[in-house]
Design brief:
4 copies of one chain form a homotetramer.
Chain A lengths: L1 E4 L5 H13 L3 E6 L4 E6 L17 E5 L19 E3 L2 E3 L5 E5 L6 H14 L3 E3 L17 H14 L3 E4 L6 H7 L2 E4 L7 H9 L4 E4 L6 H12 L6 E5 L17 H8 L4 E3 L1 H5 L2 H13 L4 E5 L17 H17 L4
Parallel strand pairs in A: 7-8, 7-14, 8-9, 9-10, 10-11, 11-12, 12-13, 13-14
Antiparallel strand pairs in A: 1-3, 1-4, 2-3, 5-6
Helix pairs in contact in A: 2-3, 2-10, 5-6, 9-10
């Protein structure tokens, strides 16, 4: 920790800060500069109490942490890339993976036709929502366990592992029974009780970035999974909230190289939510591949305009097949298969 | 709903849109403008399925909803101001209320000394966190039920009703047993399962605004409380996330008159989180009073630099007493007591 | 400057950093912490070249400045409040000032009727745009010099000093001839050539905050005025750009106490642009008064729906008179006249 | 234009709105819905005065434009891609172009060594700043005309056309004499006088996106160039301001497909400003290529840590050469040369 004192502080005021630093277990180290006195507080910031409370002291101008606050998700802790296994599929290895399927599971027919179509086009994991977090209580909230059963059936028939969203701590065991990957949605990205419940099932957890989550906060939310004995964490960028209104969210593709730099966990990109418009999905997928993502999560629906949720951002099976064809040269160009 | 077609659309493409609008239960109404054809879809947007899925159609440029999506929280539904009762305290009436206390309950001594001090200065409701959502899993997570028991004890001794945060659906009943108002924190503002669980306890629910929640989304989250048979909802502005880094969040005081315009529910302001710096808390409280807030929620700690969480933004009992004195002429100036 | 090295850096890599710090005129000071080595670089950050370029070095993790970069606008440089004089009006003193008038000058009749009405209601400075920066080239761009002449005439007839926007370096002298205060608009807040041209006229400069300007950047833009021999600077908060779409901008009233804390310059609040809706203007004005602003800048138009620009956010003379009456008790409550 | 009336409006109030719509030259068209009455105002929104002023009327809830406000930059106006020529280089055609060079021109040696190095690595246009907009008046402001002369010399010796920033209307002719492309920086993106001055030189104009500019505003700023008889406009995405602090700005790569969809003008990406960290530049360049950009603008400096401005985000000539090699397979994969 670095503590910057305000200008013209008396020696007793300075001593009070030094005493407090020692009381909290750090060794203070004074540097007298031209305009400010700066104190370095030496000690492990992750095991000692934070000194940020010193900001409340009238003689203190700022307190700046030196260490990063995340441990287990960091590359320092695990220098090589982690590979997460879901069913027979490995995410984070040389093979680029594509998760595809409808936003919401609506019926057996809708799910099965989509599953077969995306598999034929090259998808390796089936996505589909059974529990849907909806901004309004008057919108369709998902089929619930019935949807999970349909997903499990689609898995049996196609062999594809299944990813679906977990909304409630109370459902963790039930969802884990049917799904291969538990998805934590953007609105729950800092619902730490849900993260802990998901981690404890032992299943891989895909953690979507919160709408206004800084990279550091996202990594710390991931830390809730890894510190609960579950090493199978996937980060999923899906767009952040900005002032721009042309798209529903601003897909922050630079999160890919940043997470790769800071962490060992695989990175997935969900362009559907970022685009909010099916016609932009294709370009975003290409960018994600080029920038080093390990997998995509794409919403596909047999008849998007019919969809019970988020129809505007789902692509048709035909458009998805075209997308997969267009992605191939890029996947090769970045040295993946 | 208003559907704007792209320029130069063929008649069969247009007819397909009309057919879909009818299929979803609306009556279409065509207007041929100079550059675009616009279709009005007449029907109740809150009972019919949304037409926003039409955005996925190639012939459609935009779909614009006409109605507001919230019902029960809106002033249309309930033209006069709602008053919410917690213990013997009424929030939303002529009397301006102040909720104050420590960010986290740390010990009986810390809580009781703070409670007595804030009561002496004029606070009418005691706040204190027993379960704390922390960005990092390595930070202090609250005393849990032990903290709730201390709050209940403080209530007995001071007569002040108690507000505390609810973090987990599984704790709803337990927290409701000890507390008079359940607080839903900013990270859980769209944790709809938690909102439903809180609503079902019947206790008043204070809903903090999510970090990047638009007013409409906040109102819709509130709708989850009212539509679960609980009319006792308080909206609490606590700062939104912007590009500014001087303060931790940007307190959006304009939310006060907007909520007052759109809704009948009382508005509370929490300047502690918005300021992130105790020295700015006072000015923000004055602004909140002047702009029509019904209550304040202020973090007070006997020794802020010692606090186990968020020390930087807590004020001392002495500063709080000064603040209360400074607020008085403003409270009078806006015609409250 | 504080330089944090990455973990596990070799001694020669560390020495290279130390050598560079010395070469740039600072004295390095090493602190070896538990997880990182930190170097304090002692020297005046405002006269030496920045060390931030070290971030490009592979062995460096972060570089953190310790000093604030603004000098002349800071309270350290001038501890007491500055008072800026425009005509016979003093801004920043005990008397609260109100600048009011139409967004654009449209005609003599429109300007004169508004000027007389706002003066009767208590305004002391007349505002009106002669050159208008418009998002689209197809919108009304202002009456130009003809508008300036009308403003000068209104000043003669009412005795009120006049504030108007300066858009182009080439107009600086002409606008300064007619106006008492030069307004720099939000889109030009970092048009440094314009700031220099405005400063050189010697007239007071009102600097609106840029749409996404951090406090520090705003202060530094103000520094362009003061460092060009013009001490008459007014900061004007008018709303920042955020994700919220209910209002056109988010009025950041917390900027008032922050500027007061950091700087000696007066603070003006323009709620018209922040609200984008006349019905919210009143509450925002009250908040501004309560939080310590020195003046308001309010758009008033005899027939807002007729206005040639920004009609939605202008209030009628009658609404303005009501507003002035409502503000009085608040102005008294904060100890001003 | 679509005008939504508030619920329960009287017939005379409705008639007043209809009258005003007619007065402004539109033909009103009424639709009575379930909860609201909606009026379509038929007429060309780009030649008639806007109806948005109606928002100020008490009986009006919202006013929604139907048409896009930009004309000449839109794909509707010019369906095929525009190609912009600078010297012997065509931007927007099949060949992918790379503009590279130092942030600031510092000396002949620095510029020439960088120019030769980037040319050898495959760059086709030389960038370099002679006038620098700096957040603080105490930072290096560029070499001015001396820098322009060095750029002209580098052009003679390498044959590469030159791009440099224009800061002041007063310099437009001088800069146009030396440069092949005039760059308008992010802080001046809505400095309309500067855009007009740049357009009038007839030279191609590269318009960087403002820090918080919506796509529509950016297109409208471009409209200032095209409507001043200059068809040679390049849009340049360089990162927008968000809440994220890991990078200096958030590079919004989705702007590429959006601009391609809405406009015929070429799109350039400047990853240096978006990344703020040289180590992320490479990934961002790859994303830009994959998503359909026509050119890159990359800051290269022989010794980044020595640079007089923005050292942290400049790459070395060696890193640039590596980058160019890495980009090749991606450029081929998207069908360009």
């Amino acid at each position: 920790m670095i503590i910057v004192l305000k200008p013209k502080i008396s020696r007793p005021q300075e001593n009070a800060v030094l005493k407090e630093i020692k009381r909290l277990g750090y060794i203070p180290h004074i540097m007298r500069g031209v305009a400010r006195t700066v104190i370095g507080a030496i000690g492990d910031e992750r095991t000692h109490q934070s000194l940020e409370t010193l900001t409340a002291w009238p003689q203190v101008e700022t307190v700046m942490p030196v260490q990063k606050r995340y441990k287990l998700v960091s590359r320092e802790a695990h220098p090589s890339n982690s590979v997460v296994h879901a069913g027979n599929v490995a995410i984070g290895g040389k093979k680029f993976q594509v998760m595809a399927g409808p936003c919401s599971v609506e019926s057996e027919k809708q799910l099965m036709s989509t599953a077969l179509a995306v598999q034929a086009a090259g998808a390796t994991i089936l996505r589909g929502g059974a529990f849907k977090p909806r901004t309004s209580p008057y919108e369709f909230q998902g089929l619930g366990e019935k949807g999970l059963k349909l997903l499990a059936k689609a898995r049996r028939e196609t062999g594809m592992p299944v990813i679906t969203e977990l909304l409630s701590e109370d459902h963790a065991e039930m969802v884990a029974e049917y799904a291969d990957i538990l998805q934590i949605g953007t609105r729950n990205a800092q619902n730490f009780q849900l993260l802990i419940a998901a981690a404890k099932t032992g299943k891989p957890v895909l953690l979507k970035r919160g709408m206004s989550m800084r990279i550091e906060e996202w990594m710390l939310a991931g830390e809730y999974v890894l510190s609960n004995e579950n090493p199978n964490l996937l980060f999923c960028e899906r767009g952040i909230r900005t002032f721009e209104t042309y798209t529903r969210n601003t897909l922050d593709l630079s999160a890919i190289p940043i997470i790769k730099l800071e962490s060992h966990c695989p990175v997935v990109v969900d362009p559907s939510q970022g685009a909010g418009r099916a016609e932009l999905v294709s370009a975003m997928c290409k960018g994600a591949v080029a920038m080093g993502a390990d997998a995509l999560l794409v919403e596909v629906h047999p008849h998007p305009a019919d969809a019970w949720s988020d129809g505007a951002q789902q692509v048709t099976p035909a458009a998805f097949a075209r997308l997969m064809t267009e992605l191939k040269p890029l996947i090769t160009a970045v040295g993946r298969t």
